[in-house]
Amino acid sequence: MPQLHPMLRRPAAAAVVWLATAACAWASPAQPLSDDILTSLQAAYARAVIPGEQADLHRDLLATVLQRVQRSHATEADFAALAAAATKILDPLPSGSGEPAEVFRTAMNAALRSFDPYARYLDAKAYRNDQASSGGSFVGLGIEIESSDVGVRITSPMPGGPAAKAGLRAGDLIVQVDDKPLRGVPLADAIARMRGDAGTQVSLVVRRDGADDFTLALTRDTIRRQLVRWQMEGDTLVLRLSSFSGPVAAAMTDAVVQATVSHQPRGVVLDLRGNPGGLVREAVRVADAFLSRGEIASMRGRTPGSERTWQADSTELLAGLPLVVLLDKASASASELVAAALQENGRATVMGQRSFGKGSVQTTYSLGEGRGAVKLTSALYYGPLGRTVNKAGVVPDVELVLPQPDARAGTIATTGPV
Q1: What is the pLDDT of residues 108-129, one digit of tens each?
Q2: Which residues pair with 373 in a beta bridge?
Q3: Which long-range contacts (CB under 8 A, 24 or more apart) does 215-222 make?
Q4: What is the distance of C-alpha 131 from the center of its chain?
C-alpha cells in the first residue's frame, strides 16, 4: 500500500498554465504508456549513465515511476511527451558519463514537470525530509524561502533557528549552496540541498541589497515550526495559522484552551493570510472544528480510490461565536478548503482579498525501501456547494483593499521551509 501524504501547496507561476490546460487533458487524446516508449526511454538513460548496479536500479525505477503516473494521476498523461522531455535531458550527455542517481532525478523531474508543476520524484533522502516536514518539525536552517530568478529568497527567518542566529533577514537571496549555484534550480531541489542531518554544516553565498555577496557556514539543527499563534484583541480571539504542514488542528485547539482560561471571547478571527496550504487532513480537521454538521469538502480524481467526501461531526469549537476568516492573494489550497467550507456552510464571514485559486491535491507514493517516492496530483477538491476554487479562488464576502499590497501577491512562487 502506498504511504499517502495528500498535500495542498501554493503553486508556482507555471501552475496557472497547467490549470488552464488540465481540463483539456481529460478530453484530448493522450498517448498511453507503451512498451516501445518505455524501452526507448530506458535505453536512452542506460546510454547516458555510468554502467553498474545503480544504473540498473534506476533504469528499472523508470518503469515503476511511469506506471504509477499512469495508475494514479488525476489526468491522463501523454507518455510520448513525457519521454520527450526526459530525452531532452539525456541526449546531450556523453555516453556513459552521468552519475546514475543524479541523471535519473533530473530527467524524471523534467518529464513530470512537463505536464504537472506539482509532480516530483524524491530520492530516499528527500523523501525522509518530506515526511519529517509534514510532522511539523524537520532538520534544516530555519527559514521560509521562495523562488527567484537568481536563487531563492528568504521570506522569513524562524526565530531561534540557525539562520536567524546568523543574522539572515527576510529579503536576503541565497545564490549558492556548497559551491553549487541555485540559478534555475527548482525550489524543491534547492530545499533538498540545504536540508541534511542535524549537526552537519552547509555553506551559503548570500546576496543582500546594498552589500557585497557574503558567505556563511551554518550548522543544521532540528526546527520546530510554530504553526499557530493567538492573541486576544479586546473581546476577540485572533488565531493565526501559518501553514497546514503539521498537526495544526491540535495546536489550534490547544491555543483556544489557553486563550479561554481567563477570558471568554465574544468573537473569533481565523487569520489565513499568507498561508500556502499543507496537509488535506489538517485542513479538514480545522474546518470540522468550527462546524457541527454539513459537508466539509469532497475530493474527485480519475480513479475510484481518489473519490472521497468529508462530513462534519457534531462537536463544535467555540460554538455560537461570530467567526471571521481572513484571506489574501497568497492564501492557497488548504487555506481555501477551510475558507470555502466555513463560508458555504454559513458558519463564517470571509473578509480580505480573493484567494489564490488552487484546488488540486498531491499524494506522495512510496516506491519501495531506499528507492524514494513520487509526488503526483491525484485529485481536485470541491467545496460543500460543489464548486472548485481552481483559477477562481474563494471570493470574500467583504473585500478589504490593502493600502500597500505586496507587489508579488498573486504571482507568488511556491514557498517552502528549510
Answers
A1: 999 999 999 889 999 998 888 7
A2: 122, 366
A3: 216/166, 216/168, 218/141, 218/162, 218/163, 218/166, 219/162, 220/139, 220/140, 220/141, 220/162, 220/195, 220/196, 221/139, 221/140, 221/141, 221/142, 221/161, 221/162, 222/137, 222/138, 222/139, 222/198
A4: 12
- Rounded Cα–Cα distance for residues 127 and 371 (Å): 9
At 221-251, the pLDDT tens digits run 988 878 899 999 999 999 999 889 889 999 9
The three three-digit cell numbers of residue 235, written as one number: 473581546
pLDDT of residue 191: 87
Q: What is the Cα–Cα distance from 355 to 329, expressed in whole angstroms? A: 5
What's the pLDDT at 15?
A: 38
Max mean pLDDT range (4-18, 45-59, 160-174, 387-401): 45-59
Q: Which of 243, 358, 366, 375 is labelled catalytic?
A: 358
Choose the catalytic residue: 298, 333, 366, 378.
333
333 flagged as catalytic: yes
For residue 149, give the C-alpha cell. 530568478
User: Is 329 a residue of the active site?
Assistant: no
